[in-house]
From TrEMBL:
Protein name: Anion-transporting ATPase
Any GO molecular function: ATP binding
Domain called ArsA/GET3 Anion-transporting ATPase-like: residue spans: 1-161
Organism expressing this protein natively: Actinoplanes friuliensis DSM 7358
Gene3D superfamilies linked: P-loop containing nucleotide triphosphate hydrolases
Length: 304
């Protein structure tokens, strides 16, 4: 799940994970940006570098586990897994070498983050995958192409060896039918433009794009394209409300602003529709995003 910052991609990712769990799927919800957004949404303590159960549906045997991938922890795990440097890796961390490595080589950082997601996705026991679905709350649209195109970044770091092997494995998974990158947007100019750019970039990289998810969509409050002061005054009177000039003028100004916004939203919606990709609209939650709101969004996501 990607989207411009502020579009609600973490909320939508969490709702999707809940919806999948309600359908009986064992689901892992992953974040990689260190914001602990999942913990905040579910009202729990910050997530450790471990897969932790955070939700179970009222019925069925599905569940949602969550994981916050930390690049330093991922590098320590990597060093231990491939080079048996568990104790030595922890010693390197104490002197700041691990932080230095993940900062100086951003390509390595992204390989480690995506590699951990790949491991969780492909892990199996007794011939059965650990998870039916993995939902990744990915970086925003402005960085999503570089984040997912790990092979290009890793080519600058290694031509062979475990890093190269892990990078190639991640690249294969991300370009396989197992993967879909869903793009979350608002009907505002900047988020829509970033969504269009991200979809074009991902398509060029041969990374499958899934749905366009228009979040926080507002209902049309006015049926017609024009509202006169006479109509407003008549309506106010019929409702037993004040009809003085200040009230009518203020309401008229708000109605014009609403219609202008709706016109812009329709234009932006048309741009998205022209892409010919599946699209779903999620409503603006008047009461804010709480657990009930997440379940409402989950139901809408799973109904299409």
């Amino acid at each position: 799940m990607t989207g411009k910052g502020g579009t609600g991609k973490t909320t939508v990712a969490a709702a999707l994970a809940l919806g999948l769990a309600a359908g009986g799927h064992r689901t892992l919800l992953v974040e990689v940006e260190g914001r602990q957004g999942i913990a905040q949404l579910f009202g729990i303590d910050p997530l450790p570098y471990a897969e932790k159960r955070i939700a179970t549906p009222a019925r069925g045997d599905g569940e949602v586990r969550a994981l916050a991938v930390d690049p330093e922890e991922a590098l320590l795990e990597y060093l231990d897994m491939f080079y048996k440097l568990g104790a030595a890796g922890r010693a390197l961390r104490k002197i700041g070498a691990i932080d230095f490595a993940t900062t100086i080589a951003p390509g390595l950082r992204d390989v480690l983050l995506t590699g951990k997601v790949k491991e969780a996705t492909t892990r199996s026991s007794d011939g059965k995958r650990a998870y039916d679905a993995v939902v990744l709350d990915a970086p925003p649209t402005g960085r999503i192409g570089r984040f997912l195109n790990v092979t290009a970044e890793t080519a600058r770091l290694a031509k062979m060896g475990p890093i190269k092997t892990q990078s190639d494995g991640v690249a294969s998974l991300l370009r396989s039918p197992m993967t879909s990158v869903h793009v979350v947007t608002l009907l505002e100019e900047m988020p829509v433009q970033e969504s269009l750019d991200a979809i074009a970039e991902l398509t060029a990289l041969n990374i499958p794009v899934g749905r366009i998810i228009v979040n926080a969509a507002r209902p049309a409050l006015l049926a017609s394209g024009k509202v006169t002061k006479v109509e407003l005054k008549r309506g106010l009177a019929a409702a037993g409300l004040p009809t003085d000039a200040a009230t009518v003028n203020g309401l008229h100004a708000e109605a014009k602003a609403h219609l202008t916004r709706r016109e812009l939203e329709e234009s932006l919606r048309s741009e998205l529709v022209e892409l010919g990709r599946p699209m779903i609209e999620l409503p603006l939650l008047a009461g804010g995003v709480d657990r009930d709101g997440l379940h409402e969004l989950a139901g809408l996501l799973m109904s299409v």
